[in-house]
Write a structure and sequence with these properties.
Blueprint lengths: L2 H19 L6 H7 L7 H4 L3 H24 L11 H21 L1 H15 L5 H26 L1 E3 L3 H22 L2 H16 L2 E3 L1
Antiparallel strand pairs: 1-2
Helix pairs in contact: 1-2, 1-4, 1-6, 4-5, 4-6, 4-7, 5-6, 5-9, 6-7, 6-8, 7-8, 8-9
Length: 204
């Protein structure tokens, strides 16, 4: 294994261990065991556990959210047409796909939320937590731009301002699902998010 491959394996394993055991439970020993590599090899890739957690927030989390948002706001395999109704229908359908992914593997988004809270409470990680959310907003803005282009509509305000609301609402949806698993409330939140987001869309 090269150092680059070792780092990538440890980052992915750390993300998975955090999803299963929380940040506090993500010890270097447990992470190395998940990555199927000896504990002694850890420091060939990262100088500390803090450096590894920072790498998770800078690479694994945005990449994971990018994939989720690609399912929510894709540019292909959607209803054909170029108007607001088509865009709204597509958004509603793809948010249902997000709920399905959340139910299938809630730990991934739980890990994202846990990392943000953990970083806030640990000064050495705060800059990573801030950058993690900045990356998430950027990914969401990119998805919103792609969705508008596909449907032939425009946003009435910058997507850099809409994106934080989208991410914040998805995190709220995740927290409520993790706490209650209430499908009815999930549907109410999804419908609210669709209406809220579409209120910023207009015919091109």
């Amino acid at each position: 294994m090269s150092v680059t491959e070792r780092r990538a394996a440890l980052v992915e394993s750390a993300y998975r261990v955090i999803a299963d055991h929380g940040v506090e439970g993500a010890t270097t020993r447990r992470i190395c065991a998940h990555a199927d590599m000896p504990l002694a090899s850890f420091h060939y890739a990262f100088e500390s556990r803090t450096a590894l957690l920072g790498a998770v927030m800078e690479t694994a989390v945005p990449s994971d959210i990018d994939q989720m948002l690609a399912a929510i706001l894709p540019t292909g395999d959607l209803d054909e047409g170029a108007d607001l109704e088509v865009m709204e229908a597509n958004m509603r359908r793809q948010l249902q796909a997000f709920l399905s992914m959340l139910k299938a593997d809630p730990g991934r988004l739980q890990a994202t939320i846990s990392l943000g809270i953990y970083a806030h409470n640990h000064p050495e990680l705060q800059r990573y937590g801030q950058r993690m959310y900045e990356n998430l907003y950027a990914v969401a803005a990119k998805g919103l731009d792609a969705a508008a282009q596909h449907a032939g509509v425009r946003w009435t305000q910058p997507t850099s301002e809409i994106a934080p609301v989208l991410i914040g609402t998805l995190i709220s949806v995740t927290l409520i699902y993790l706490s209650t698993a209430d499908d009815h409330v999930m549907q109410l939140l999804v419908e609210s998010l669709v209406r809220q987001t579409m209120s910023h869309a207009a015919d091109a």
